[in-house]
Amino acid sequence: MQRVTRAAVWVGDEVVGAIGSGLLVLVGVTGEDTERDADLVASKLVGLRILPDDAQAMNRSVHEAGGAVLIVSQFTLYADTRRGRRPSFTAAAHPRVAEPLVERVVDGVRQAGIEVQSGRFGAKMAVELVNDGPVTVLVETRRGRLV
């Protein structure tokens, strides 16, 4: 996730999601991920205190700051580059597994009362952002695994 002052995602000439201040979240899913993982990620996104307070200290969650969240699915987060020069994406979940889990993250954040925008699953997207800080944080549901 990245703390942003603004972010947008485009599919072709169409803006499919855009936010002001808040979090841009790139979500990768593996074949081992479950609904529990998606729920943990949604909860972490809502509560993690990485937005600035009045003294510019990282003391507010997106919920407390009244920010928004832009969630974009990104299977390339699970690229394995250990061998050769072409990444392998075999750790990334099949789309029929990944899409409902990404949607579960979106729904979990939305149910917490946060404004949520999202990209379009499986589409070629262009993501535009202004990283605030810069602040970028990895969220794991299991040690050594990013989600």
What descriptive keywords fit this protein?
two-stranded antiparallel sheet, alpha+beta, 147 residues, 6-stranded mixed beta sheet, 3 helices, D-tyrosyl-trna(Tyr) Deacylase, Chain: A
Concise summary:
This protein has one domain (2-82, 94-134): D-tyrosyl-tRNA(Tyr) deacylase (D-tyrosyl-trna(Tyr) Deacylase, Chain: A, 3-Layer(bba) Sandwich), CATH 3.50.80.
DSSP summary, beta strand count = 10
User: What is the element string, with H for helices and E for strands?
Assistant: EEEHEEHEHEEEE
Mean pLDDT equals 94
Distance between the termini: 10 Å
> Superfamily at the CATH H level?
D-tyrosyl-tRNA(Tyr) deacylase
Query: How is the main sheet built?
Result: 6 strands, mixed
Architecture in CATH? 3-Layer(bba) Sandwich
Helix content: 10-25%
- Class of secondary structure makeup: alpha+beta
Under CATH, the topology can be stated as D-tyrosyl-trna(Tyr) Deacylase, Chain: A
Query: Number of helix segments?
Result: 3
- Total domains, how many? 1
Low-confidence stretches: none
Principal-axis shape: globular
Strand content: 35-45%
CATH C-level class is Alpha Beta
